[in-house]
Design a protein that fits this description.
The complex is a heterodimer of chains A (248) and B (313). Chain A has 248 residues and is of the alpha/beta class. Chain A has helices spanning 37-51, 69-78, 94-108, 127-135, 188-194, 204-207, 235-244; strands spanning 2-7, 9-11, 33-35, 57-64, 82-87, 112-116, 139-149, 152-159, 162-169, 172-176, 199-203, 216-221, 230-232. In chain A, strand 4, helix 2 (69-78) and strand 5 form a beta-alpha-beta unit. In chain A, 45% of the residues are buried. Chain B has helices at 17-29, 42-49, 70-80, 93-106, 213-222, 230-234, 265-268, 288-291, 300-312; strands at residues 3-7, 31-38, 54-61, 86-90, 111-114, 116-119, 122-127, 132-137, 144-148, 165-167, 178-185, 198-202, 225-228, 255-259, 276-281, 294-297. Chain B has two domains: 2-167, Rossmann fold (3-Layer(aba) Sandwich); 198-312, Rossmann fold, CATH 3.40.50.1220. The chains are: A alpha/beta (248), B alpha/beta (313).
Chain lengths: 248, 313
């Protein structure tokens, strides 16, 4: 079985994001970029499934600028077998990303597709569900547990009410939550080895992807600030203040 | 007036409060039909019909709809949406699971986490974990499809005149590739963290799993749900479904009491729409005090027992 893993190049989790002067974008120049943390967990899970003997190949794919090769190389250094970049300088919204992944699903024929539940830049949380719809296959979203057996997988999903368990027949799409695993650290020799692993580049045109309508972006602004309040000196004053605000 | 279809969330017995919140947003956009998918939605339909802003309740009852499986609900929702200008769902894990699947079947983009309506096609939504707000417009050729950030809208009231309820039969063929096995509910008898009006949350300042019991005690006195910071979850004080923040739950209770929580930006993202935020922390410089409406600097091990006694009196 082959596993396809989608990864997105995003501004690193630890960077405090700044909006540019005219409010048309966030500042990306000179900012550290990384694999979307949820996608990194997806890569790790795919490697564990392969290393447990349930799959024989892990293919990582990214949709984005040429520079996303860096993130694909990192995934290869983690242990993925080969990589594909669908290169574009344009904004790719979730439905377009799902259509692009669907083209790869058709050519690669994976038994599982693993993705992060959302990217930490646009926070859309859509691509996995959309791919599963286009593919007409099961989806198990927001998973924190996964058990793969022959032709099937049992997934534990983190839902608002608690933990939900579903069983899906493969092939299927899985979107992973933060607590599924802790990704491995990449070692220097693996980085060297990753340089020799195959990385193929394609485009929306070469894949014949039908671009869907996208949302028009009208600009960015900081969130309205929350005004801080006052400090009280005692429990009695705290209770009085709560009563004063009508919440007790 | 635009025709709006809203996907309701329920457990077969009662409506989830996320529905009444999403309804506030939906009703601003037009005439709302509330879609109820379930095995038997009779009881929930009565409740749904009494909500202010609902024009019609649509019951789509079939055995396969008894469990919340997105691959089963989405094709029916997409079929039903054909007669509507707008399709919405609450941005709960249920709505987030189902709606993008329906949007892809409809071939249109989805707006995730609508926090504000600018006009009938233009909306504001948070990105970068709420650190940036973006304004997006749906192209004229597309149906408006979006999830509603429940923390941004207050629940609608119950009106006295119930809306008409209809049973709907749909043609969509349903897959059998997904088997719903079960739900392990969290929280026991306490209110659900996501929808509670009061929440008491603990952080690393509690220092141990045993000390965290003080948070449960205070919550029970207040009839509140219990939450935790990522640090408290990582330290193993409580299970991870109690985590509040960017990677946990985003909540908007009327009262949020943060005990021993420093207020990292990831945590504050999860509570910034709360009504009144109270911070109890030993460190007067902790960032939580910048956002708290009421702050009390001091040792939580003295303050919590004192607060317990004061609430009893």
């Amino acid at each position: 079985m082959k596993i396809l893993v989608g990864i997105k190049r995003v501004i690193d989790y630890n960077v405090r994001v700044q909006i540019n002067r005219d409010g048309t974008d966030v500042v990306k120049e000179g900012v550290k970029m990384s694999i979307n943390p949820f996608d990194e967990i997806a890569v790790e899970q795919a490697l564990r499934i392969r290393d447990a003997g349930m799959a024989d190949e892990v293919v990582v794919v990214s949709i984005g600028p040429g520079a996303a090769q860096q993130q694909l190389r990192t995934a290869l250094a983690m242990g993925a077998d080969r990589a594909t970049l669908i290169e574009t300088e344009n904004e790719v919204q979730p439905l377009a990303a799902a259509r692009a992944l669907m083209k790869l699903v058709e050519s690669e024929g994976p038994g599982m597709v693993l993705l992060g539940k959302q990217a930490i830049d646009d926070d859309a949380n859509q691509v996995g569900q959309m791919l599963a719809a286009l593919w007409d296959r099961p989806q198990a979203t927001f998973i924190s547990g996964l058990e793969v057996t022959e032709g099937k997988a049992k997934a534990v999903r983190e839902v608002d009410a608690g933990l939900e368990t579903v069983e899906v027949s493969l092939p299927a799409v899985f979107t992973v939550d933060l607590r599924l695993n802790e990704p491995r650290f990449v070692k220097m020799p693996d980085i060297m080895k990753a340089k020799r692993k195959p990385l193929e580049t394609m485009t929306f045109e070469s894949l014949g992807i039908d671009m869907p309508p996208q949302l028009e972006n009208l600009g960015y602004a900081p969130p309205p600030p929350r005004a801080g309040g006052t400090k009280v000196e005692s429990v009695a004053a705290l209770i009085a203040a709560l009563k004063d605000k009508g919440v007790l | 007036m635009a025709k709006v279809l809203l996907l309701a969330e329920h457990d077969g017995k009662t409506l989830n409060t996320a529905t009444a919140r999403a309804l506030r947003c939906a009703a601003e956009l037009g005439d709302v039909a509330l879609a109820l998918f379930g095995g038997n939605t009779e009881a929930v339909a009565d409740e749904a019909a009494s909500l202010n802003g609902v024009s019609r309740v649509l019951r789509i009852d079939r055995p396969e709809n008894g469990e919340p499986v997105a691959a089963v609900i989405a094709p029916q929702l997409a079929e039903l949406a054909a007669g509507y200008d707008v399709l919405l769902a609450p941005s709960s894990t249920y709505g987030k699971d189902v709606l993008p699947r329906a949007a892809a079947l409809l071939g249109v983009p989805q707006i995730s986490d609508i926090m504000e309506i600018v006009d009938s096609r233009t909306f504001r939504r948070p990105i970068y974990a709420g650190n940036v707000i973006t304004t997006v417009r749906v192209p004229e050729s597309c149906k408006v499809v979006g999830t509603v950030r429940i923390a941004s809208f207050a629940a609608v009231d119950r009106s006295h005149a119930p809306a008409p309820v209809e049973s709907i039969a749909l043609q969509a063929s349903l897959p059998s590739h997904t088997t719903w096995i079960g739900l392990e509910a969290s929280g026991g008898d306490r209110p659900d963290l996501q929808s509670a009006t009061r929440v008491v949350a603990g952080g690393r300042g509690l220092g141990s799993k045993e000390s965290f019991d003080m948070i449960f005690q205070l919550a029970d006195k207040l009839g509140a749900a219990v939450g935790a910071s990522r640090a408290a979850v990582d330290a193993g004080y409580v299970p991870n479904d109690m985590q509040v923040g960017q990677t946990g739950k985003i909540i908007a209770p009327d009262l949020y009491i943060a005990v021993g929580i420093s207020g990292a930006i990831q945590h504050m993202t999860g509570i910034k729409d709360a009504g009144v935020i109270v911070a109890i922390n030993r460190d007067g410089e902790a960032p939580i005090f910048e956002a708290a409406d009421i702050g009390l600097v001091g040792d939580l091990f003295q303050i919590l027992p004192e607060l317990d006694r004061a609430l009893e009196g």
